[in-house]
Design brief:
- With 748 residues, the protein is mostly beta strands.
- It contains 2 helices and 49 strands.
- It starts with a strand and ends with a strand.
- It folds into 2 domains: 85 residues, Sandwich (Immunoglobulin-like); 634 residues, TonB-dependent receptor, beta-barrel domain (Maltoporin, Chain A), CATH 2.40.170.
- The chain has a 22-stranded antiparallel β-barrel.
Amino acid sequence: MFICMLLYGDVLLAQISVTASVKNIENNLPVADVSVQVLNTDKGVYTNKVGIFSFENINANAILKFSKIGFQSYSIAVKNLDDIVYLTPKVSVLEEVVLRSFSSSQIKKVVPDQVYLSQKDIEKMPFILGEKDVIKLIQYTPGVQQATEGQSGLLVRGGNASMNLTLIDNIYLHNTAHLGGLFSAVNSDFVNSLEFSKAGFDASYGGRLASITDIKTLKIPDSTNYNGSLGLLSSKLTGNIKLNENNGLLLSGRRTYLEIFKPFFSNNNTILGNDKNYFLYDFLGKHTAKLSDKDHLETTFYTTKDNFKDQTKGRNRNLNWGNVLFGSTYTHKFSSVLSSKTTISNSYYSFMFSDDEFPFNYSAKSTFNVLGVNHYFLWKKLNYLFKIGTAYNNTNILPKKVNALVDEFPVSIQNQETYNYDTFSVFTDLETQLSKRIEAKIGLRLSSFFAKQNSLISAYHFYSAEPRVSIKYQSKKNQAFKLSYQRLNQFVHQASISSFSLPADFFIISTDKIKPQLSNQYSLGYSYETNGLQLNSAVYYKHVTNYTEFENGSVNNLFSNNIYDDVLVGKFKSCGLELSVNQKVNKLTLQGALTLSKTVAKFNEINEGKYFAATFDRPININSIAHYKLNNRIEFGALFIFTSGQNYTKPADIRVVNQRPIINFEAKNASRFPSYHRLDVSCTYSFKKKGRWNSKINLTLYNIYNNNNPFQISYSTDDDVKDAFIEIKEEKDGLFPFLPTVNWLFSF
């Protein structure tokens, strides 16, 4: 908001020129024809079709009142006005059935396949072990699948977890899940909004091929408030503290204590076995400072930690991993239409893994560190939005540092190399209305990549142009067709140990021999809404070149002297049909999604150069959510998930050559994990409100029919390492059995 001061003689009168937009808080969509009245005057305007209004030279102390049928009225002083005013829909309780659209409307969005979630959307989510998880809500959208139980990240349109970019307050988050994906690394209590895209990316985002998740944390509140929960599996507390008019402090922490359930579960094939131990925690701290009416500074710190020990069946397996994020974002408003944003951040991730299986004892460490600077200018006018900026990242990766013993003799592994590269990008985006029915968003990103030399790779430079185009044609008021194309590059490659459902993945950088991954994706979508019913469908085709995998996806790769020797370069293509339906009828909300897809990969060295099912090929994915609010006190929820299992390459036997175990494998990805499915149900009771104190108790029954979804494929041997041939026996371990849990949630 641009403020100009007009001088009249010796008297200084605060006169303000205002341009702002009005949006629906539930779906972040603009609201047209909102009456904006200057109280106690005859001045007033209406928002245009994109929700924007403006005033010229009104008093800074004036009060604006926003009103429209179907929304709650809202008043605010002009001097406190932000760029965006959010209105809350008002639902009238009628004797007949009331129909409402699901909040995540797609009709008015230019970009296809984009999801925006507000705090209200998160509140409507089903409970999973007493938690409401924003990452889980994304998982329930079509085209998105969870990794195998125990893995981190999401699988989006055939891509692996490394192809997703996740940001918290503009800071890169490397690993998005705690063990098993049961809890995501993002505590929803501190989330203000989330925007998720799997097509039509803003040009300001780069370096990943599959999806973008942009998370914003809470702003300075009107008054200090706290919320949290105490449960059998975890506890958490979030405080959004208003220090004064210009400063706010956000603190949020969470920890689990699954170990208390161990006495009730004697089955060592689950995470709660007597010989296993697991805990996690995460903590966020954020300071927000309003330096002036034009200047804001946000500083965020975030850390997560997982620790898992498994001493069953003679194992001595230890894993721990975590993220540490720190960054500051400075926002400056030059005028009511022009602003800029600058972010400086650092993100560090480490993973450590040790085991004594496969007739040897070993430990491995991997790290991933990103130092980033991002700056852009944003022009927001009545008929268009224009963004232009630059981004710089310095990335350091230690793929693996391994120490190993075979029959108590050390194995010499010369692999302790750190890889370093810089990227510099220039980007621009334009979103505009081409005609009454057609809107378009056009973007271009120019990127440069500079890999630095070490003892294993040479210096390498790469330059790319990445265009993105999205077009929406709204044929009728309640239906729209959308088309998008995007070309993307990714400069890091992930190679997974595919028989593990753990974050035991190696990241390597592009070289002159292993070029950056390149994706071309086409998407066509259709949206239709009527009488509270929302239907969305999409078809997509994605082609990725310079896609990498380990030759066997195995633990053999831990012991190679040069990790690049075991990397194969090929390509994959993925196509699919995505369908979703959402219906809200009075007290009942239903949501369902179906994805039918096929992802195949091709490597010259595998399967005689023919296409085969890729590691993350999941042909069928079904999920459904039901929520019923019986009355103001009691609500019920249910969640069902079904997805095809992940492909993996099974080891056949071990041959010992010169005291070095060599594992022989079956055909690439010839085996598949069993299909994953489970049903969760929950019931929540809200106690009577006392002043500012609110509380409720939640009972969740997780995996109610106790399906043993596999968490990892482990192997055992009965022979001696001195034998020339060792037989391998395969065992599938589950992670989470049927778990009842009670959580007490509170806020004040």
